[in-house]
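User: Structure please.
Assistant: Input sequence and predicted structure:
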Amino acid sequence: MRIPIVKHKALLNSMAKTKRPPVLKIKIPAAQKLALLARYQHELIEAGCDEAGRGCLAGPVFAAAVILPPDFEHNLLNDSKQISEADRYLLRSEIEERALAFAVASVSNTEIDEINILNASFLAMHRAIDQLHIKPEFLIIDGNRFNKYQTMPHQCIIQGDGKYFSIAAASILAKTYRDDYMQQLALEHPEYDWHSNKGYPTIKHRNMVMQHGFTPHHRRTFNVTNPQLSIF
């Protein structure tokens, strides 16, 4: 089963139905501000791409593509893993308001099992790029590998979500929309604690798999180790 590609702001917003923590704007001391770069190159329309959920045992992998204004800057925007949940949602609203174009897409757990998680991550990025209403001319990709998108030039950047605003923005969108999706799945299977672990292989999640088995949302090709083995 393919999860529908999310391609319009209205549809994106409709996914976030669960309650979010209160959002507060945070003032960052100048010494803590991180200087991300606006662009990798300056001749072509550039989109940043990133994914979320590669290492999960359950749920889809999400990816986002974002085109930001050339002069975009933000003191808080960084790799989504370095930012609190409340601030991620604050940033999502700002990114969607200020981006020239953005899109979020996903690849289901069954597709992941068919083509493997690496190819699924690339496919999710391709689907997100497909939905951009402004066609990019150059892509910057978080990581060290990528399946070429059509004939479009690209550059892979290790830890790019901590170096370029557009990749960081894509990481925020992919992460928050995937979290929203997993919150919805958690209502169907509360015993797996997806509202908290978002499908990642925490001890509780693995224990529940060992006790209750897989759900239709689990990735069957992923190895689930017994948490008790970690004590040796």
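The longest helix spans residues 165-188.
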